[in-house]
Structures are given as structure tokens and as C-alpha cells.
Amino acid sequence: xxxxxxxxxxxxxxxxxxxxxxxxxxxxxxxxxxxxxxxxxxxxxxxxxxxxxxxxxxxxxxxxxxxxxxxxxxxxxxxxxxxxxxxxxxxxxxxxxxxxxxxxxxxxxxxxxxxxxxxxxxxxxxxxxxxxxxxxxxxxxxxxxxx
Length: 147
Hints:
This protein has about 150 residues and is mainly alpha-helical. The protein is about 60% helix and about 5% strand. It has helices at about 10-20, 30, 65-110, 120-145; strands spanning about 25-30, 40, 45-50. Helix 3 packs antiparallel against helix 4 (about 120-145).
């Protein structure tokens, strides 16, 4: 599976949109129990938008049920975005911490004459790398279980 990274420009744009948009949480139909397709923000105080129900000459293109689902998706996605943004920042910081913990281990292969190094020198580098990796991984397990 290939994951496309989120650019700093994309993140900045989303952060700016979140800051300028009506504050959350957003909700569909002031609680989501009807099928009107209206979206409210600021804890149900501010009317934000209405999703459309469209018909052509024969069949509905967007049914009232689909309009309601669209409204719920928009409202719930807007409400969840700040949490996802925070989780993404924490994950990126953890990835960098793990990379730093592994750099000394990876560097062993780049040392000229590494194959001829004394076992105690290699063991010293390995143990230091292992300690850093253990520290980084132990905090990862806690953060993953809290998410």
C-alpha cells in the first residue's frame, strides 16, 4: 500500500480553513434525527449549509436520504478534523523519534571497515541504539492505546 504524504502546504491550508470556519462541533439537522440536510455549527447555534436533493425527469439523482447522509458526513468530518490533525502531528513526531533511534544502528553499515570492528565496539553501538529504540517504542505503545 502506497501512502501519499500530506504536504506542508496542504496541512497549512486545512489548518487555516479550520481556524476561519464556524467553530465546531458541527451537526446535521440539529442532532441528525431528521432528513432535512441542514448543517449547523457552533453547538447547533449557527446555520452552515444545506445539502441538496436533486431530481432529473425520471429518477432522483440525490435522494433525501442521501442528502441527510451527506450532511452528516460534512458535519462529522469537520468536527473530527482537529483531532485527526493533532493525531497526525503526534504520529509524525513519533516517526522522527524512531528514525533518530535507528540512525546509529543504520550508520554501522556505513563505517569503513565495519566488518573488521571489534565486537565490543559493535556491541556498544548496538546497545545504545537498542536503549533509544526501547525508549521510543515504549512511549509509542502508550500513545497507540490512548488513541
